[in-house]
From TrEMBL:
InterPro entries: NLR-like, Nucleoside_phosphorylase_d, Nucleoside_phosphorylase_sf
Coiled-coil region: none
Residue intervals of the Nucleoside phosphorylase domain: 22-291
Organism: Aspergillus keveii
Gene3D superfamilies per UniProt: Nucleoside phosphorylase domain
The protein, known as: Nucleoside phosphorylase domain-containing protein
Length: 345
């Protein structure tokens, strides 16, 4: 999706602690650096470590885009018609900053789960650009199809399907099947070829294969969700506006100012497979490209660096630790004096 690919800067000195591997280039008016999580390693901690290592080498980076795949949370009523290949973007809704960590909660009386703590929202410069792009899409189509088709023209190999490696092309509506919540996928089948058609949720045929874009809350945690009951429990924790589940964003939001963009590759149920992952990654990347092209470079120049945000977070944590230490010392001193009084009385 890069407009230009760049070589590594000649004067680059990568921090000893930084194990990331980078690519460089330009999108619109912005110079960008790209990295990814280690192969086969997922979760919020891995994402946080990757971001912190990046900042140790690039301290002037101001914002980030977390781009990849996620699972949709279909609404039981069918009011949210989300399909595989669609794009979900994190957006604050007043109750959350756009991302909710679902595995950080407390259990109250009656076994009811409630969220504990909140995560930061994206920086103002990104939210203003998000509003601008949404307004633009009210009267103009998204450029996702344009960018994905251009990508495949420049890289024909990505359009080819190989055994065990689906292509980056749209996979076909016949392979986008949403099943009833109570219907479990046969345990010994890798695909849904033998799944019962009568158990499939009937949905209206879309007039176009162009991906739809949804804005709302993204639930993030360390579980690989392949179960409808778990999916619905997470949705209840995250709130009514939650439309996507993923595994990295919660590790970044408080330490790395970013916007989360996810292409939908499954429905977080037992029918989950890898067929749509590459296409979903492509649609998310295409949206990220379109988004960056409308972000004014001048707006980002006035945004604090990500490292300064991280430093403030660390400073706040340090203050909290010192406060706790002070309270503990006070309690210890009180108990010690109490014991002395009891001894001499």
């Amino acid at each position: 999706m890069l407009d230009e690919k760049h070589d590594a800067p000649r004067d680059l000195i990568q921090a000893i602690s930084d194990k990331n591997i980078y690519s460089w280039g330009r999108i619109g008016d912005h110079k960008v650096v790209l990295t990814s999580l280690p192969a086969g390693v997922y979760g919020t901690v891995s994402a946080a470590v990757t971001a912190q290592q990046l900042l140790s080498t690039f301290p002037q980076i101001r914002v980030g885009l977390l781009v990849g795949i996620g699972a949709a949370i279909p609404s039981a009523s069918g009011s949210l018609d989300i399909r595989l290949g669609d794009v979900v973007v994190s957006q604050p809704d007043g109750q959350s900053g756009g991302v909710v960590q679902y595995d950080l909660e407390k259990v109250e009386d009656g076994g009811r789960f409630t969220r504990k703590g909140t995560l930061n929202m994206p920086p103002e410069a990104l939210l203003k650009a998000l509003s601008r792009l949404q307004a633009h899409h009210e009267s103009n189509p998204s450029r996702i199809v344009e960018f994905t088709e251009g990508m495949l023209e420049r890289n024909p190999f990505m359009a080819q399907s190989k055994p065990g490696r689906p292509s980056y092309q749209y996979q076909g509506a016949e392979y986008d099947r949403l099943f009833e919540a109570t219907y479990t996928h046969p345990s010994r089948s890798d695909s849904c070829t033998n799944c019962e058609w009568e158990k499939e949720v009937t949905r209206a045929k879309r007039e176009t294969t162009e991906p739809a874009i949804f804005y709302g809350t993204i639930a993030s945690g360390n579980l690989l969700v392949r179960d409808v009951a778990t999916r619905e429990a997470i949705a209840q924790i995250a709130g009514d506006n939650c439309i996507c589940i993923e595994m990295e964003a919660a590790g970044l939001m408080n330490n790395f100012p970013c916007l989360v963009i996810r292409g939908i590759c499954d429905y977080a149920d037992s029918h989950k497979n890898d067929r749509w992952q590459r296409y979903a990654a492509a649609t998310a990347a295409a949206y990220a490209k379109e988004f960056l092209e409308i972000v004014p470079a001048a707006h980002l120049s006035n945004t604090p660096t990500a490292l300064s945000v991280l430093s403030k977070t660390i400073g706040s944590i340090a203050n909290d630790v010192r406060s706790v230490q002070k309270d503990v010392k006070s309690i210890f001193s009180f108990e010690k004096d109490k014991s002395r009084r009891e001894l001499y009385n």
